[in-house]
Design brief:
There is one protein chain. With about 550 residues, the chain is an alpha+beta fold. Among the domains are: about 170 residues, Ribonuclease H-like superfamily/Ribonuclease H (Nucleotidyltransferase, domain 5), CATH 3.30.420; about 200 residues, Palm domain of DNA polymerase (Alpha-Beta Complex), CATH 3.90.1600. The strands form nine sheets. A seven-stranded antiparallel sheet has the order 8-20-21-9-22-23-24. The radius of gyration is 26 Å and the shape is globular. The N and C termini lie far apart (about 60 Å).
């Protein structure tokens, strides 16, 4: 069984209990008086388990903040492998890891997915100091114990599935686990060229998904998603060979720099970076694109002048992986199916990992030119490091470029088929038109019907469904509920203030501020439509002339 731990706190910030399952026995640590440091009591106990790896669910966002706080207070050396996702206590070499990064679902959902007995219910507003919970302390302890053992059983079951299907054990994240599975069973990653010397051009030709508001208010709208959009693109040939320059030819090559002239249209076909934002403009501009996108744009009437072009051997090496993982997903229960879906999706994302990253290092590991202290005692420093300085076998950005390009082309095909579109986001189409749906990967599926919908901005909208229930998408602030009247006000340009609380981030802990629940203010407002030109109801693409905007977008 897998070792696990769980921390419970009053109002999420004052720890009063730690549960620890070492894989065989369960141990509990309770705060016995006001002076008791229950986290440190747990750490003193666990110190004898040298070299252990212990998991908590959402450790990076919660539990490991308390671990870091206690270790730094007691002058213990900590190493950050991936922020708070994998925190190592150097002395006994104990790693505190986040199982959420591996499974990407709430623990209750993971229990259901993997057929494990559910965690118990507990009202967190009833959490108090143990001596104040005597009548219900037994129930609290059972809840804490079940959380630890349930997580251990979940991780044990998931490990068994990975061993059975791929012959691997889990890594620290789902993405790294997926790529290990691909490398082990489907295609050796070492055979894929990294093309480091051409990476600048490859990154320039790699763009995110489309996220645009076309009409700001609508009625009787169908919300469609493409089923497993990115995985459905794994059947396309991807770049695997060594890049080389070639004579420009629209029917050949892998990626190219080009000058394009996009005719007037309601939906621009090509992505472009403009003033720090991703837009899909019309007009004339110059950039790098995957040839998949350029060829499709040519079919839509875009005038393309290729400046220079790269090519390499291409093979559909992801297809077998997709078919296998998709079969696992289809043959699993709903929750496990979603985990396998993410498992498949994260593969292409891992290929696109950047070689530059930020790390936190202890002062003893710092070189003179890395002097950038984070805490008041200058013990921990934030440094920028390059993965290019050592082997990074999983970074193959050309594969990520191709899958993203293919996904945008297929998404655009769905948007053009719909015609009367109100909103889209990467793999979604919101339209009044009834489109054909299916159960296969890559097909559209109807996920919601809106009687009325208010599209304020990217990832910010509200709608009333057929049951007259208001739902909202407000990325980052989903817990603050707006009314339909609020959405109408924001669309008119009014502002809706709100207040929310969150635990201070781990960098603040290093500065000696400890774990605190801090109130923050936020205002819901109509965002700057810097990726479209805002009209009274409809929006239109930004028009570029020689890469410069003909009209500056405004929120009014």
């Amino acid at each position: 069984m897998v070792p696990t731990f769980d921390i419970e706190a009053v109002q999420w910030t004052q720890p009063i209990a730690v549960g620890f399952f070492d894989g065989r026995e369960y141990h509990e640590f309770l705060k016995i008086n006001e002076e008791c440091d229950v986290i440190w009591e747990f750490l003193k106990f666990i110190k004898k388990y040298e070299g252990i790896k212990v998991y908590a669910h959402n450790a990076a966002g919660y539990d490991n903040k308390f671990i870091l706080d206690s270790l730094t207070k007691h002058d213990q050396i900590v190493r950050f492998v991936a922020g708070l996702g994998a925190l190592i206590w150097i002395g006994p070499n104990i790693s505190f890891e986040d199982s959420y990064l591996l499974l990407s679902r709430k623990l209750s959902v993971c229990c259901e997915a993997l057929g494990v007995s559910q965690k118990l219910e507990w009202r967190h507003d009833e959490t108090k100091n143990p001596w104040e919970m005597q009548p219900i302390l037994g129930s609290f302890s059972e809840y804490l114990k079940r959380d630890c053992i349930a997580l251990s059983e979940v991780l044990d079951s998931f490990t068994e599935k990975l061993l059975t299907n791929f012959g691997i054990t889990p890594s620290s994240t789902l993405a790294l686990t997926a790529i290990k599975a691909f490398n082990k069973r489907f295609y050796p990653v070492r055979k894929i060229a990294s093309n480091v010397e051409f990476e600048t051009f490859i990154r320039a030709a790699t763009y995110g998904g489309r996220n645009e508001v076309y009409k700001r208010y609508g009625e009787n709208i169908n919300f469609y998603d493409v089923k497993r959009m990115f995985m459905s693109c794994y059947d396309t040939p991807v770049p695997v060979g060594r890049m080389r320059w070639r004579s420009p030819n629209i029917d050949k090559g892998t990626l190219a720099e080009a000058i394009v002239k996009v005719p007037d249209a309601s939906i621009g076909p090509l992505p472009y970076r403009f003033n720090g934002r991703l837009i899909f403009p019309i007009g004339e501009f110059r950039g790098w694109w995957d040839m998949v996108e350029l060829r499709y744009a040519a079919q839509l009437g875009v005038d393309i002048k290729l400046i220079r072009q790269l090519e390499c051997d291409e093979k559909p090496i992801l297809k077998s992986f997709c078919e296998f993982v998709n079969k696992l997903s289809e043959n699993s229960n709903l929750d496990m199916g979603r985990i396998w879906k993410l498992f498949g999706l994260r593969l292409s994302g891992k290929f696109g990992q950047h070689r530059i990253r930020t790390e936190i290092k202890h002062v003893k590991d710092i070189k003179e030119n890395e002097y950038n202290p984070m805490d008041k005692n200058e013990i921990y420093h934030e440094v920028t490091s390059s993965l290019a300085s050592f082997k990074s076998p999983y970074i193959k950005p050309a594969i990520n470029m191709r899958i993203r390009a293919e996904a945008k082309v297929r998404h655009l095909e769905k948007l053009l088929e719909a015609q009367d579109v109100y909103y889209c986001d990467t793999d979604s189409v919101y339209t009044t038109v009834e489109l054909p749906t299916g159960n296969h990967i890559g097909d559209l599926k109807l996920v919601e019907f809106a009687v009325r919908a208010y599209f304020v901005g990217s990832k910010f909208y509200g709608y009333v469904n057929s049951s007259e229930i208001l739902k909202q998408k407000t990325a980052g602030y989903r817990d603050y509920q707006l009314t339909e009247y609020d959405f109408k006000r924001v669309l008119k340009g009014e502002e809706i203030p709100c207040t929310f609380s969150r635990i201070e981030n781990w960098k603040e802990i290093l500065k000696g501020r400890g774990v605190n629940l801090v109130k923050h203010s936020f205002t819901f407002r109509q965002p700057n439509f810097s990726n479209r030109i805002l009209g009274e109801i409809e929006t239109s693409p930004i028009k570029l002339i020689d890469g410069k905007a003909e009209e500056i977008p405004s929120i009014r």
